[in-house]
Every structure is written in structure tokens, then in C-alpha cells.
Amino acid sequence: MKRVVAALILNNNQLLICQRTRHQTMPLKWEFPGGKIEDGEQPRQALRRELEEELGIDARIDEEVSRIRHEYKNGGAVELQFFAVRHYQGQIENKIFKDIRWSERKELPTFDFLEADLELIKDLVSGKLL
Questions:
Q1: 8 A C-beta contact, residue 32 and residue 103
Q2: In this structure, is the dihedral angle defined by the CA atoms of residues 93, 97, 98 and 101, taken in order, positive or negative?
Q3: Closest CA to 6 of 69, 86, 65, 58
Q4: In 3D, which of 111, 102, 126, 112 has the Cα closest to residue 13?
Q5: Of 104, 86, 105, 82, which is closest to residue 35 (Cα–Cα)?
Q6: Distant-in-sequence, close-in-space partners of 40: CB < 8 Å, separation ≥ 6
Q7: Which domains occur in the chain, in start order?
Q8: Residue 126, Cβ neighbours under 10 Å: how many?
Q9: Percentages (nearest 5) of helix, strand, coil residues in the chain
Q10: Cα 58 to Cα 70: distance, rounded to the nearest angstrom
């Protein structure tokens, strides 16, 4: 099972969402920034590294918000750990995505998110999380 971390970066009640490029697996799907945990890394370390690589920021990783296990129809399985990020240093810059944008919670369902993120999206929109 692939272990993945993702950030719920908050700014005035908006969340940063990112769109994959055409050349990535599951092209053009929306997701929260983050990535795979490398061997020997702790989840928070992995997320700090990923946010620096993807967005050019030095983030303070806050509490774990949710943990989801998802099995894709093609047989791939993933465990996702989502962490809140309320503070970071540096300017957010798009280093790898097709698009990035700030979204109100109620707007999240209008984006074509990765299947593994859909349960989290419902909980964010309903106010169960954060």
C-alpha cells in the first residue's frame, strides 16, 4: 500500500487545491498538495519536503485532520494522511501542477477531484473537519 501525505493549506477559510498535469497518472484531476512518504521519513517530514518541492514554501505542519485508505478499481491501494497547514514561509509558486487555486469549501465539489479525496471533500464541505 502506497503511503501518501497531503496538506490542507488554509487561508481565510479557503483551501489550496492543485490540478495534475496531462502527463501525470490520473491526468487533470484536482488534489491537495503532497506526495509519497519516502523510506525512512516520518509523515510530517515528508509533507514539508513535498510542499517545498511542489510550492516552494517552508510549511509548519499542524494536526492530522484525516486518514483515509482507498483502493482504486485498477488494484492500486493508498493510505492518505491529511494535515492542516495554517502557517508557512515564502510565496506559494506553482512548480509542478497544471493549475493551483484557492477554493471556498462549498466550491470543492465542483472540481474533478481524485476518487480517494471525495470522502474528505464531503467532510470539509459539511463542516465535520477543520
A1: no
A2: negative
A3: 65
A4: 102
A5: 82
A6: none
A7: 2-126 (3.90.79.10)
A8: 9
A9: 25, 40, 35
A10: 29
pTM of the model: 0.96
Looking at residue 86, its amino acid is R
**DSSP state at residue 94:** -
Q: Which long-range contacts (CB under 8 A, 24 or more apart) does 63-67 make?
A: 65/8, 65/129, 65/130, 66/120, 66/123, 66/129
pLDDT in tens, the chain (130 residues): 999 999 999 999 899 999 999 999 899 999 999 999 999 999 999 999 999 999 999 999 999 999 999 998 888 899 999 999 999 999 999 999 999 999 999 999 999 999 999 999 999 999 999 9
